[in-house]
Amino acid sequence: MPPLPDVDFNRWGHGVSLLGGWFPLTVEIVTVVVLIAAVGWRTRRWRLLWLPLAIAIGVVTALAARTYLNSEGLAGDPAPLRLWIWTAGCAASIAVALFGFRGAHWLRRGLSVLAIPLTMVCALLVLDQWVGYYPSLQRAWGDLIAGPLPDQIDAEGLAALRNTHQDTGKLVGVDIPDGGSRFSHRREWVYLPPAWFAGPVAPQLPAVMMIAGEFSNPTNWIRTGNAIPVVDAYAKDHGGEAPVLVFPDSSGSFNNDTECVDGPRGNAAQHLTDEVRPYVVAHFGTSTAPADWGVVGWSMGGTCAIDLAVMHPDLFATFEDIGGDRGPNSGTKQQTIDRLYGGDAAAWDAFDPRTVMARHGPYTGVAGYFDDSQEPPDDKTRNLPDRPQQRAAPVGFGGHDDANEFREKGALPDLCAAATAVDVGCTLRVYPGYHTWQFAARAFSDGFGWLAGRVHVPAPGPAPM
């Protein structure tokens, strides 16, 4: 495995942390004070009727939200209790404002209204701490206002940089036609390493497709997954050589969970294989060889990664599945068939990685890296250790009789075993930790040297002057 330099992972959280520290704690303390002041002692009728009713509304809302989350199969790790407490608090604060508005003093009215966004922010902060979506306030704000990405340039500026030395790669936004798939998508992004600019014409570099998880946008791997510093650091130590990174839109909108399949939620698979890959080859001169193309995915994107590779070994020979499921998942198997495939059970088989591998038979030249996370039994924190626990061989975990088989622990070891059985190379790492973006970023950094070697990054040329 080519060496990979250390990357400063503090760069994700540069600024005011949303994952811990003074800011989330301060917001929660202020919210509790405001909520208590908004509720007040008031009248006997208020204490015996309206306040208990508001609390009941909050509890019912939290239970309904929890039931919905479980039915949709949206989470691998159980949601923290604090998330449901603040969800209940948000619903209850709305009820308090409505029930007590008429008879309240103007100050209490104002506090009642203020408590609603504050409790909502507290719930969102806990949600963010659960999944690690935004490590800092600055990152969240940059995404909210669609601020510029690191080293972002316009496509029109690429020609001016031809035949120049660049210390870092460049990010360019692309609008890829979707006439074949009719998959409505947002702007997608391509990272070009320094070597792409070094000569009079673009070299035929390898490429890696980077797919985010559910509730995502194409910039997640850039803003939250720390992908660009990892690749820039690699290129710096390898004469500017690194793969082209492609950041496609696999969902079309923030809350559209396609699982990278073709179905009622959109022809995401067709868009990725028939439109994104050919566009990158045609416009950026990347290699066309499947051995020079890889797919990396986190959570839902991890499932996409193995699916794309085993379904299309003529397009992708390498994949890294970080925290993915056993297959495309939208609840139980029947719920998945109904939601993702419009009730077509044959389509479920066509996109199920284990079924696809068993039907295909032995593969040649395809290999994958699986990164799994398991909560330490004696660890009460959500901090990811620096080093993974290495596991030399795949380990199977039980059967598949649970109501939602895809969210069982051991999905990746099972996939690794199935891959090994059909000659797909398999490396499995298990991290003690949680299903968060910080785990995904660490896993990508740790595995990038292997990935670069697999997709045949050219040997570095002479050091630039």
UniProtKB/TrEMBL annotation:
SUPFAM superfamilies: alpha/beta-Hydrolases
Annotated compartments: Secreted
Keywords noted in UniProt: Membrane, Secreted, Transmembrane, Transmembrane helix
Gene Ontology cellular-component annotations: extracellular region
Region of interest called Disordered, as start-end residue ranges on this chain: 367-402
One Pfam family linked to the record: Esterase
Biased segments, Basic and acidic residues type: 377-389
Main location: secreted
Superkingdom of origin organism: Bacteria
Name of the protein in its database record: Esterase
Source organism of this protein record: Mycolicibacterium madagascariense
